[in-house]
Protein: AraC family transcriptional regulator
Amino acid sequence: MKYYAASRLSVFDVKWTKQYHVSDSFYTYHYNPYYQLIMVSEGPVYLQVENERFILEAGETFLLNPWERHMGWRKPEGVSAFFWVQFSSDPPLKELDTSTKPISEYEILHAEKNELRTKTTSDADQLLIPRRFKPSQRFKMLNYFEDLDNEMKHPVGYFRFRLTQHLCKILEIISTDLLEQNFRTMTLPGSYNIYRQLLNFLHDFYQTDLTKEVIENKMNRSYEYVSQVFKKYSGMNIVHYIHQLRVQRAKHLLEESRLSIQEIAKEIGIDDAFYFSKIFKQIEGVPPSKYREMHQS
DNA sequence: TTCTGTGCATCCCTAGAGGC
DNA sequence: GCCTCTAGGGATGCACAGAA
Structure:
């Protein structure tokens, strides 16, 4: 089974969508330059993709890659039909290699380490989309496909925006459903709430004197434990993260204000300007004065 | 005024053990 | 899985001196 990962920051753009009633034209090869998501409304649909043959039942979805050659390989006895939506994705969906690494080992199921304010968003949590899938919310999905079809037939106002919304909803249902069907045990542990609570606290009070005692009192747990939990989910220690928040604020003040280095150090909760300079250089690679020189117009 | 280097006391991090 | 405790080593915070 193939799986794809889509970043939550991906830009999706719906190109075209339609409900297709299987006819003779289905039995010649089709190609298109976009991703194509199929959902069978009346089955079976006998679908050949490159050299592989599939029998898709009503309610099943199938994701085709751009330029992937596909066609029908057998005529059904009765009526068969499916919805399809073609869309682009920037960045492209990432195919996961499940032959060398089981899907459960890809660390894309929870945000966990991607929540720090100072981190870039390049490694944002992703949606897991299977190539072929049978969602349990079949009728809800079909409704969204009907909405897509209607929007495309009667393009009014921000219809392209709404098309993208419907597509995102469909992808969300697929990936959420997949999680519920296959990864029920992978719920976030209670310690994750402690981490979130501490993260909020740090964001609100990083400019104050955050000692071990302050954090212990706030969290009602030993500092050693809180420190372990923070390291587990963020990948860094508490003090280092506080420094990053402080330096982030200092960078803003250096660029936008005329405050002296000493005043900025005090503003971000470091009494010693010398020490501030040392920390700043450690994180940014240049001392504060040099940073101001480079960024202040 | 700011930066850099050094030294030193204190604080914090972390691994491991163990109880619930 | 959650939580506490301990101990050792490393990091931090601060002071001071000298230079730019």
User: Anything to note?
Assistant: The CA atoms of residues 253 and 264 of chain A lie 7 Å apart. Residues 189-191, 194, 221-222, 224-225, 228-229, 237, 239, 270-272, 274-275, 278-279 of chain A lie near DNA strand C (CB under 10 Å from a C1'). The longest strand of chain A covers residues 11-21.
